[in-house]
Amino acid sequence: MNLAIFFDPLPEDPLAAAPAPTTLGAYASRFVDTFPDWRTADLALIGLDEWRGSAAGPPAAHGANAVRERFYQLQKGTGPIRLVDLGNLRPGLTLEDTYLRLREIVAALLENKTIPLLLGGSQDLDYGQFLAYETLERPVSHVTIDARVDMAEHDGATAEDTHLRRILMHEPNFLFCFSQIGHQQYLVPPGVLGTLEKLHFETLRLGEVHTDVRQAEPLIRQADMLSFDLSALRWPDFPGYYPASPYGLTGEEASQLCWYAGHNDQLSSFGLYGYRPCRDEHGLAAFAAATMLWYFIEGFYHRLGETDFQSRRFMRYAIGLPGTPAKLVFYKARRTEKWWLEVESMADSSVKRIVPCSYQDYLHASQGDLPNRWILTQALLG
């Protein structure tokens, strides 16, 4: 597939001079004159400048280009860094056309096992990111990190305010599970979280992330795709979105969540949305977004391929439930000490799924309590 027809080259190389040999700029193949060979890459950066889904309209400058200037000056981390920069996506004639372009591009990258890194534009673009997964012909899991839960129903609501509802209601339904992380209760309309609960989806409030960011790791570990609205960060750490808020994730928490995403063996696409450079006077937000990308890539090159639960890399624990012959089976990775839980469908014993969980889930089970993650997964398995 010729992806080049969808992209504009970078207006100029983000690095005016030759990059230092130890920086990311020395390792990334960027679309300035020649379209890079994405088929040999592990990761592909895609700049987005589509804002028709946002009530605030387009910013005066291209956000992805501003982030690139900071990103390519960062020092190379672990791994060979096989990264290409495909340039900036040409928006379609309509917003729907842009979604379909994203679908085609992301699907091609997924088929090639190249992870797309989507940067810029409003968060409703994750609908195009999501549509690409129809080609996999299997259930997929989605995680979004956002200060709000974008499921508006009122007249005049923008695509940015309704994109999550559109994802959840999409037919054919190939979404297995969904998790919402970092939302702020006073920004979420009454009843929305109850709707997610009825659908057996998980949520993790901002306060819970502040208390222990590690609570988000099992949720992110089960995701195939992640959509990160940068307005989930507090304004002092990320002055690059509208409207401004003094509350939200810290830069350190956001980077940790990105590392979890990169380290997830299952995750195959990653989007950072919502950065507006016109509100970033000193480039602080561009640097924060660049650092978040860096942590995702660092996590990716620390992946261990922990997927064979029958191998010696895992310890197996079976816990009997009081009063029943049933047992809960847990797996613990010897190296990383991460935990998984095996859930067998009560409706069809041939249907099983091994889902990420926490050590706390194991402790609850050892005390005779069913972990909430088992209950939710059982409901999703039907």
Automatic annotation (TrEMBL):
The record's annotation in InterPro entries points to: Ureohydrolase, Ureohydrolase_dom_sf
Q: Which Pfam families match?
A: Arginase (PF00491)
Q: Which UniProt keywords apply?
A: Hydrolase, Metal-binding
Tell me which domain of life the UniProt entry assigns to the organism this sequence originates from.
Answer: Bacteria
Q: Which residues form a coiled coil?
A: none
Q: Which family does it belong to?
A: Belongs to the arginase family.
UniProt name for this protein:
Formimidoylglutamase
